[in-house]
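Retro notes, item 3 of 5
We never archived the inputs for the nicotinamide-adenine-dinucleotide complex last cycle. Fixing that now. Sequence and ligand:
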Amino acid sequence: MENIGHLINGKLREDNAGTQPVYNPATGEAIRELMLAPDDLVNEAVDIANAAFQSWRDQPAIKRARIMFKYKQLLEENKDEICRLIGEEHGKIAHDAAGELQRGIENVEYACAAAELLKGEYSKNVGPSIDSWSEHQPLGVVAGITPFNFPAMVPLWMFPMALVCGNCFILKPSEKDPSTSLFIAMLLKEAGLPDGVMQVLQGGKSVVDGLLTHKGIEAVSFVGSTPIAKYIYEQATQNGKRCQALGGAKNHAIVMPDCDLENAANQLVGAAYGSSGERCMALSVAVVVGQETADSLAAMLKPKLDELRVGAFYDNDNDFGPVISREHKEKVNGYISSAESDGAILVVDGRNPEVEGYESGYFVGPTLIDNVLPNMTSYQEEIFGPVMQIVRVDSMQEAMTLIDNHEYGNGTCIFTRDGEAARYFSDNIKVGMVGINVPLPVPVAYHSFGGWKQSLFGDLHAYGPDSVKFYTRRKTITQRWPSANVREGAVFSMPTL
Ligand code: NAD
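Structure as it came back at the time:
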């Protein structure tokens, strides 16, 4: 079986403090063996990155950007291989993997504008013959810790911008599907990135803890579940590091009685079940205003779900694949069972679907649960599976209160034809990313991504303009060149004009 190693100073290494299998979730087979980095390799990687930092930070931004131009081309040329790796270890169908990669590449395109983004600000004559400017300086060595559900896109949210800002980067990918992240990191060398500027360490908690406590790391970007995000944020900041930690989600769509219901139903199906519901922006709760609308929506959804094709990534006609692991499949099935025993109505039950030829895969079929109440566990917690729940309410205000009271605030959407209602909703809802008749309002690469409440810890959102702020520190320089006519004696009062 092939080993998955680390990328250290431009070379693959297999040092390990143990190993762990990586599974193909469609077949349930162990397909590769992951090397878990020992503590001394974490220290070595940080030392190498610190040694590489000075000359990398001194490169003109345009030269760093040129590496990203080449990198974008390499990602596109290697699209099939990247999608195959995503499919093999994550289970995502090829068309969905291609979408993930494309959204990642858009972050590389944004990073190509480094020279423009890092220009800074300049003011002439802030005082007599005094000029002042602010510049964005890189932080040093920064780390990224990423989740299983986007093994290409989420790392690409982080390292292209961190690198063009002049930092060195250490990536710790998810141990569940690490090959994609390692592969895309290796392409950077081919694009011309100097050795040691980008490295990959494989492993789990002990590697993460090693990075969080290491004095040579200046900042940590994290994306994953909320309990771990909280832990990372607390540990990183207690250890004096800058941190942004994006957490879990429970995304609601309000379905208004005046909306185009057929369109809303189609949009909901794609956004709830795409990628097996394993997206932090998956629309997992439809909050339907009015009993009649809810009855019509449930009746419309059922036949659509019956037609969905669930299977392995090899067949591009499938709509979605397996969930990530056997344990996760059991967890998702457990939420479905809990909703049923709490009194909700199981309209479509996806527990243990038959997928011919893939009987040992971790499949959950599309599931629709109606009459869900806010006190049910299946409503309160993130399921992260192909499960949509319908909560019935009497008014838009009731729907908004429900959303505002939920602990997560990542994404939300309203389906309506009423511009005034939509404007009120987007203006007042306590959620970070809002769609109006757009079910997955994932911001494009030149806007930043982030939720509110328990969906994000830290002050800045991920990628886009906020990433320049996150991956640099501001320095403001005030300059005067004394000459005969401006030379003056000591001044003891605060300088003013
Ligand atoms: P996870 O929290 O289990 O793992 C994320 C990363 O943390 C992995 O690299 C993992 O190795 C590491 N990790 C796990 N346990 C740890 C521990 N005890 N100490 C230190 N590090 C640890 O998340 P996941 O299951 O890989 O991903 C799914 C979750 O990520 C969902 O909750 C989803 O909503 C969330 N997510 C959020 C966003 C967002 O932008 N807000 C995007 C994608 C995924």
